[in-house]
Amino acid sequence: MTKPCNKSATRRAAFTLVEVLAALTIAALIFIALFTIYARTTTIAATITDRLNEKALGQEILQRIAEDLDRLGLSKTNTTINIQNKFDKGHQVARLTMESRLYADNKQRRLTFEKVIWQSSYDPEIDDFVLYRTHSGINYEDKLLEAQKTEVEREFFIPLCPGVTYFRIEALQGKRVLDKWLKSSGQLPSAIVVTISFAESFEAPTGGYDVPEEEKITRTIAVDRTRKITFIVPEIPEESSENGS
Fold it and tell me: Model confidence over 124-164: pLDDT tens digits?
């Protein structure tokens, strides 16, 4: 004998349209929350990676400048170092020129043995500030390129990296910090302070643009490390004099 169908039990086993819509709404909210967390995490990770890359790039540039100074900045040679700072479109830019010369024709004519220029300037084509380097002179070997250069390649400014928002070079002479150094051959500063940054700039209260101090990468590079440096050791007072005995 066939049992009668329990219609009420069948209706209870199925989901109503309201329950389905509520479940879909909750699932959508959970998905949106998870997607938001993932997007924020990805953005934070990308920001950290970019900042690490900027720090690494800045340190690499400072190391390359230090290598050029170690090679050319010798006081016992016919070497000149020129430093210039200025503002370009409100941003701090700088130019460092290192030139080593030698005499020819029985010391009647001076030739540029090696000349290296580091400078930052605005490039209107890409609407950004670019760091450039050029290497010229009769010395064809370039340590940065690790290859021999042709005559055509020797006089060009090679763009190294864009996005340089701050580039400043200072000379140290004793306790003085100078933003310009235009000295004749044989007169070199004791050290050079190079500061670079790729951080986003802001409009400074005094005019122009600046970057946060914590975003600036600075390195002090000694000039002519082979020179004789006189150290002054301060005298330490004896305990007896301090105690008044």
Answer: 999 999 999 988 887 655 555 555 544 444 457 888 889 99
pLDDT at 90 over 50: yes
Tens of pLDDT, residues 97-106: 998 887 666 6
Q: Is 24 exposed, middle or buried (0-12, 13-18, 19+ CB in 10 A)?
A: exposed
Let me know: does 196 contact 162? Beta carbons within 8 Å.
no
| Domain residue ranges in the chain | 51-222
Instruction: Provide the whole-model pTM.
Output: 0.67
- The DSSP annotation for the chain comes to -PPPP-HHHHHHHSPPHHHHHHHHHHHHHHHHHHHHHHHHHHHHHHHHHHHHHHHHHHHHHHHHHHHHHHHH--TTSEEEEEEEEEEETTEEEEEEEEEEEEEETTTTEEEEEEEEEEEEEEETTTTEEEEEEEEESS--EETTTTEE--TGGGGPPEEEEE---EEEEEEEETTEEES-EE--TT---SEEEEEEE-SPPEE-TTSSEE--GGG-EEEEEES-TTS-----PPPPPPHHHHHT-
List the single range of 35-44, 154-163, 204-213, 236-245 with lowest mean pLDDT.
Answer: 236-245
CB half-sphere exposure, 244, CA atoms < 13 A: 0
